[in-house]
Amino acid sequence: MSQGLFKKIVAKTNEYERTPIPASELKGNRSFLGMYAGEHTAGTEFVIGPLFVAHGVSAGDLVLGLLLGNLLAVLSWGLITAPIATAKRMTLYYQLERIAGKQVVRWYNLVNALMFCFLAGSMIAVSATAVGIPFNLEMPTLNDWLPRTPGWIVTVLLMGAVITLVAIQGYNQVSKFANVMSPWMILIFVAAGIVGLAQLGVGSAESLFSVAQEVIWNGVPLPGMSRFTIWHIIFFAWFCNMAMHIGMSDLTILRYAKSWTSGFSVFAGVYLGHFVAWIASGILYAVFLQANTGSQEFAPGQIAYQTLGIAGAVCVIIAGWTTANPTIYRAGLALQGIFPKVPTWKITAIVGGITSLAACFPALVMKLLDFVALYGLLLMPMGAVIFADFYFAEKMGFRSEGALSSKSDFSWPALLSWVLTLVFCLGLNFIYGVEIFFLGLPGWFVAVAIYVIVSKMKYPLTKTLAG
Amino acid sequence: MKIMLKIGSLIGLMLTIVPPVLFFLGQIEIDSMKLWMGIGMLAWMVTAPFWINRQQEDRRPETEEK
Questions:
Q1: Smallest CA–CA separation between A264 and chain B, in Å?
Q2: Counting Cβ atoms within 10 Å, is residue B26 exposed (0-12), middle (13-18) or buried (19+)?
Q3: Is there a contact between A191 and B41 if contact means CB atoms under 8 Å apart?
Q4: Fewest beta carbons less than 10 Å away: which of A174, A280, A366, B8?
């Protein structure tokens, strides 16, 4: 269902790229429920749950933090993204072009494509940790930034080449395969939780609480890792998809919704993938740590294989691959916006090459939490710009969709809002030491404020006689 | 034929989740559990592709006619 809808959206991109979606193409809540359920149970889940364990979060902080953070994410989709998506019914790119101009959108596309490449790269690396098992490949450790062995580089590059070749062939077959494997993968996560708990000696509700608090999420970070509090969990769960909700990437998907309430359909996916799957993969990692005391190795494939056997390892390969493939495809689409005359296969090959090179560096996996936060942060200001343009243009006295209304390819308010917000966030990080997970919230308000102020200066509403 | 495929897929999913529950209850050993889960994976992979995507393709013309 998920890939089906995405495929349809991608296929129809040319048709409705610059026009609102007609009523006959609108979808009900069920379509979005299935789509989001598939999308949020992916390869990243095998990394994020274990990293929470490595960062020494406590059990209570994790559960409460995930419940609250995911709720805030659902509300962001439902109350911020969906109302604008169903009112305008345009893609993010076209909406942004009308506000910021083609020149600014080109830069946005470039940043977006690069981020997609790195995300896909991390997923190739995750798959490689399972593919390397039969070859006794030396696995990366938590503090690794560079590849440990030539074998790792060869494995990752070969996998990258295969995934790129498949991506060049098109999106269809992988989308069908991902669609088929989604229910099985969700059950594998549930199975991982059950088996992991049994291996940790849980036999009753009482022992569940004590094992959770004292063994799995015991509040002690692994060597070299910072300690996570409930605030880290809340903000990470809320903002790990920041680019999609308050960053407005999902305008492109939710513009197909019959009603703005479809934005809330994400709750199923978020609580399956970002609650059940994160907890289950965390339990798996705790089992691994117990069996390999003092080990710094961090290899999701190996971890799943030890507890679940071949099914676990295959699940890691499929999860990583089916996440990497559409991500390479999306990166290709973003780059094609900048270089429309270059053939699609060449763009995909270039994207695949960058992705494969990125995948050689285990840092992308070990620092996935920071990378995901950075990815959202870089794209978020443009979402804030769309929000401010939609809600405040008339009320605050400036012309909406500045680039379109001034027939320009370039708009200062959007660009300044984007750049100055990132400078502000960088300042908070460097000067005050605010961690990257917490920068999105103040950054969003700053982006809205800068856009409104500069728009009032650049595009003031002129009073007409009739008015 | 389709009903047989669906039954095969259901068996695949059952073999993915029931052995872990039995292991949790102390009814089977971990190696048996891993083996059954592997068989479940194969059962799902060889049956599900023939009805899950087909079902969507079958549905598509209906929605287009409307």
A1: 24
A2: exposed
A3: no
A4: B8
